[in-house]
Automatic annotation (TrEMBL):
UniProt-listed InterPro entries: DNA-bd_dom_put_sf, MerR-type_HTH_dom, MerR_fam
Designated name of the protein: MerR family DNA-binding transcriptional regulator
Keyword DNA-binding among record annotations: yes
UniProt source species: Novosphingobium pokkalii
Pfam families recorded: MerR_1 (PF13411)
Length: 133
């Protein structure tokens, strides 16, 4: 990975490589208004701030938050220097996401139990129907 320049400014290629995403991904989040790289002619230049925002975006996506939820979170970060409102908002979304995941987890466990029972029944039936030699 290329070292981050002293001024912290990086081109799209370096940022994409550093974050493990494509140029298209960076442009997508720019189009959605989540990041705002500076421009020098046609070249996108990313500051520490934009790279940090992308890291938060990618983490949010990995945790299952929607683009809208991530945007709300980032917008709060910009208007609340204490980050109190942002953190309260984050906690509320985390709790909601955890409830959804717990529900999905329960449903998944139930489905797995049912499938295991069906498999055992099918294997028993196969054993009954298979001619003994």
């Amino acid at each position: 990975m290329p070292p981050v320049p002293q001024d912290g400014l990086q081109g799209i290629q370096d940022v994409a490589k550093r974050l493990g995403v494509t140029h298209r991904t960076l442009r997508f989040y720019e189009d959605k208004g989540l990041i705002e790289p500076a421009r020098v002619g046609n070249t996108r230049i990313y500051s520490h701030r934009e790279v940090a925002r992308m890291q938060l975006i990618l983490r949010g996506k990995r945790l299952g938050f929607t683009i809208r939820e991530i945007k709300e979170f980032l917008d709060l970060y910009d208007v609340d220097p204490t980050r109190l409102e942002q953190l309260q908002h984050l906690v509320a979304h985390i709790r909601s996401r955890l409830r959804k995941l717990e529900s999905q987890h329960s449903a998944l466990l139930k489905t797995m139990t049912e499938l295991q029972a069906m498999e055992a029944e099918a294997l028993d039936k196969i054993g009954e129907l298979t001619p003994k030699s």
